[in-house]
Design goal:
alpha+beta, three-stranded antiparallel sheet, five-stranded mixed sheet
Amino acid sequence: MVIENSDWFKAQQAVRGWLYSHKIRTEAASFCAPFDLYTTGGTRLEIKYSPFIWRNEGSGKRLTWQFNIHRHGKIDGAKVDFYILRCDVSPVLQKAGFDTPIHLVIPSPIAIPVIRISLRSMMIEWGKYSNGWDRIAE
């Protein structure tokens, strides 16, 4: 059952629009499928969404995006071709002049069950996956 007013559903629709703007057509997978979208060529896409918010980490709080890669505690990268992590904007980022979501297109498998991305790790580690729609272009 899809809740159409949920942040997750809105994010999935936004990712579909982002891909379509790059001439990549997608269809929604069935509710029980191990992925969220597939392209007309059969590429399987798992969509993950996170706002940029304060989270408790260690001895303090940090602004991060956080993505649960696992499904029910398990990671099965064999059933997904790419993960698209939608890093949403926030008031903090908008004040700094960033008002466009970042889409990280990461090939499967990912062995990390929960990914936390700060602005620093985005620049150092994760930025290479930024807006990489051409990785899945058909």
